[in-house]
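Teaching assistant's notes for section 4

Start the section by putting this record on the projector. Ask students to predict, before seeing the second block, whether Transporter will look compact or extended. Collect guesses on the board.
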Amino acid sequence: MTLSDLAARGANIAVVLFVASSTLGVGLSLTPAQILAPLKDIRVVSLALVANFVAAPLVAFGLWRLLALDEPLGIGLLLCGLAAGAPFLIKLAEFAKADAGLTVGLMALLMITTVAYVPIVLPIFLKGSEVDPLAIASSLVVLMLIPLAIGLFCRKQAPTVAARIRPAIGLLSTVSMVLVVVLTIVANFREVLSVYGTRGILAAIVYTAVCAGIGWGLVFFSTTARPVLALGTAQRNAAAAFVVAGQNFDDPRVTVMITVVLIAEFTMLIPFARFLARRA
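Reveal the predicted structure now:
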């Protein structure tokens, strides 16, 4: 077994730990009312949906055409554009010291919408494509909604226990996040290099920056929602994108492009979140 194979297996395990611990930690920290309350702001919710399910896919499709990407790379970028509600948003918002309740509520809304949205919209962009929404929903429910529900239940029934274990869960989330970033880069280093010279890396960088700008600009009226929407629009749901790619496309360059976008987001949005924290 090669180093890249070991890194890939380690990255898969780290992703599971990261997603589950992040959502569990949120459940241990907040109440259902704190998560649902920010979603009562119709303006913010509406603009979040527009940013993630109208602007983000159109930007991806536009960059595919503008940069004349090879079709597999363009498809990978488009799949990222269609899939929103990434669990990594929780950690980014924590780095940015953004509103935790709004972050989790928005992430859940985007995640659930993605499950219903992608099967409808993908065939419009790519004729003949089919998506099984259950395949996307099952992984998201197991890794995100169930740990969140467990955390919320524990906080309500045993707040003292929740307070004691919350720091350990937070540490696990941070360590597993670092492992995801490092192991993903190691596992896909050669594949990422294969994209060099195809404008795929440029597309991933520009895409991440433009989406962050869209999210930031749309909610100019709210200093609370601005960082959450900027990070939430730029951070795409790679897990859902990988599921759709595996169901529909045989060319490995589709998943390679998703990986390139994921790495671009890691390397750009973590410093951006830190910058937002200092600015705040």
